[in-house]
Amino acid sequence: MGAESGILLKTDLPLPLFVRGKVRDTYELGEMLLVVASDRISAFDVVLPCGIPDKGNVLNQLSAFWFKKTKNLVPNHLVETIDDVTRLDEYLPLKKKFTYPEYLKGRSMLVKKVARINVECVVRGYLSGSAWAEYQKSGTVCGYTLPKGLKESQELPEPLFTPTTKAETGHDQPLTMEQLKELIDRTLAEDIKQASLTVYNYAREYARARGIIIADTKMEFGLVGNKLILIDELLTPDSSRFWDIKQYKVGQSQPSYDKQPVRDWLVKSGWNKEPPAPKLPPEVVSLISKIYRQAYERLTGEKLDC
Question: Which of 32, 63, 65, 293 sits between 20 and 30 A of 77, alpha carbons compared?
Fold first, then answer.
């Protein structure tokens, strides 16, 4: 896929483009959508000018793993993962068929069309990242007043639902629960909160049994009629902080199975967090590729298919 040289910034298929996100390219495919997870990586809401080898496979296959695990808790948009590209011929909306590229195998899935709710649904179980920074200044996290004396990376008394806006460009902005209710609907906001906490609490216990702490994560939802549907990605290294239980120590930042090393390198580089982002050095690219694979294999107990 050429991630080492910074390509795969777009997946170009002769299909109507539904939306191109920071990492995923989504295409119209009849009554469904084809979602392709690229090797692109973003940080601080900016896409970096290089790819991470096998990252798209990890995001796609790990999301599918969690969608299947949690489907009885909260319905989701997954129809099937693409393990055989010839299966896509059954859904092709064009009269003239073409040969789908093999790179779709393992990094793409068919999903239901839904009406996206334009909110990032963040759940925090531990005091880290921007939450830790805010707590140090004010003793609060996104509208919640926390007990005094908490330390960095400490487990919170209970998981917090801390939604944000979903910006097409620029940075997402935090929302209080009251702001969320005003933005989308009071009942829907409560339903999203409960669904987010339900999925997080299940996944946290599942991962803990496999030696991984899920410190925080973000989810997205949509609607089919009035039915709430979990969409996009789920509990991946892109959307979550994964920590090794054996290395976990309260009062400091944690070694992580996610893209935190990318953020750390970018901060040290002096980048101002505005486009364009600097290109990652080869050693960071190699490290992140390895970390993503390890996260997948530890959580699923399987080797990555790519």
Answer: 293
